[in-house]
Structures are given as structure tokens and as C-alpha cells.
Amino acid sequence: MINKSSDITAVAAENPGFTQIKDIELQDRWRFERLDPNALVLDFCQYRINSGCWSETVPIWQADRKIKEFHGIEYENDPAFSAQMWKKHELYKNLEFDSGISIKYSFDSGVADKNKTFFMALSSPDRYEIRINDRQVSYLDCGWWFGPCFKKIDISQLIRQGLNEVELNYAYRPETELDNCYIIGDFAVQQNAGKFRLVDEPLFFEDGTWTSRGYPFFAGTMKYSQRIDLADVEDKRVSIKLDNAQTTVIKITINGKKAGILSWHPYSLDITDYIKEGEN
User: Which of the listed residues 105, 158, 223, 245 has the most CB atoms within 10 Å of its CB?
Assistant: First the structure.
């Protein structure tokens, strides 16, 4: 987030005390470019056992617990409750079940551009039969998202405007823990009454947080840019100050050259060597 109080400051270079002589406030409006995919977290689902009726929509952790309880595994008393995966395999290796489990995630899309890219990120997708909008999806390795366990599946040609449904089918094993599913790609996320919808991205940002601008689940890098005209800056020291920036790190590039990195308050940087008279 960068807010409206960001500005360019010019000071007289010949004065050892660098007396401030001019403030030029940057525009509120920034053109932006998302450098990492946006994300929608699917952490609610419906489930069914052995082709029975679908449950009501519940948090994914609750579905996992109900499925375990159906198979006689008490969640809190399960010896594998907090065990690592290798230990779960050891504890459960002699247990046999013949249940078929189905998990269904739903989300809404209003993205109009059919050329946008969408992926589903899922832990261990090879253990599921995957269907999206009633079309079976074959898992082909096309990389991972954030970590090797979250594999990406290209679903760009399967997403439609309106309601979309992701269905996972698998043979029950107690060591198989349900996890969130993620839709990642080229979209913004619109919030309305606690529900989320995929929408087209804005071209510009004004001051405010990513969460309120369509990126409530985004974890990555954004590029902000704007042009500014500077006059009468010859023989003066010039700095940029980004008041109240809320971010981990800011890399500043001016006229195609890396000017510096800001990581803490005050978010201020001398940019004299990178600016010029006129448009920057």
C-alpha cells in the first residue's frame, strides 16, 4: 500500500543543512502491474461419502473431521492427530476402508476476458480424480505455487462466468487430510457480504490497501508507476518520501535505473542522481 501523502522533496545542495525548499506531492493515482498471480482461497466445501447426499457447505477442517468420525476415528483421540506424515502412514498401514469420498468447492467468476490465465493449486493432486464444471481434468505437471507440494493445474479453458464447481473424488485413507484449494491467476477478487467473486482487474490503484482493491489473499509483489514533471531541480538534492507505506520492502526505480531499496521508516530516499529536468 502507498498512500496519498507520498511526495518529492527538493533541498538546496549548497546548504550543508539541506534546508527544504519545495515539496511536490505525487498523484493519488498509480498505474500498477501485478508481478505474481493473485489468489482466491477455497476453504469451504461440501462433501459426500459413497455417493450419498451432499452435505451443507462447511469449513474444510470440519469436513475432514466429519469424514474421519464416519470411519470411527475420533479426531482428538486419534494417535496420529499431530503426527508427521511418515508416522501417520505407519499408524494407519493396516487399516482398510472401501469408502469413496467426494469434495466440492464452489466459486463465482465475473471475469469477461477469456484470454486470462487460471490455475488451480492443490496439494498432491495425483491422488484425486478431478472434475471442474463436470469436465474431468487430467493432472499434468506445470510447476508449483509457493512450495513443491502445491502443484498447479491449468484450468484456463474450464472457467466460465457465473458459478464454477471443483469436485475431487478419492478412495478414503485416514492419512489423507483435506486441505484448502486455491484458484490463482489473472483476476481481482471482489468482496460482498462475506463472499468472494473473481472479477477483471483495475488498471490503476489509488491510495488504499490491496485487500480493499481486489487482492485480499495476494502474497507477492506489485509494481506501482507514474510520471512526474520536475522543474528547477538543477544543483539541488532531491529525495522521495513515501509516508505511511505499509509493506515489507520497496524497490525504487527511476528512469529505468535502480535508485535504492527501502525496508523501514522513514521511507525516504535521495534520488538526486536519477532524476532530470522535465518528465521522469
Answer: 105
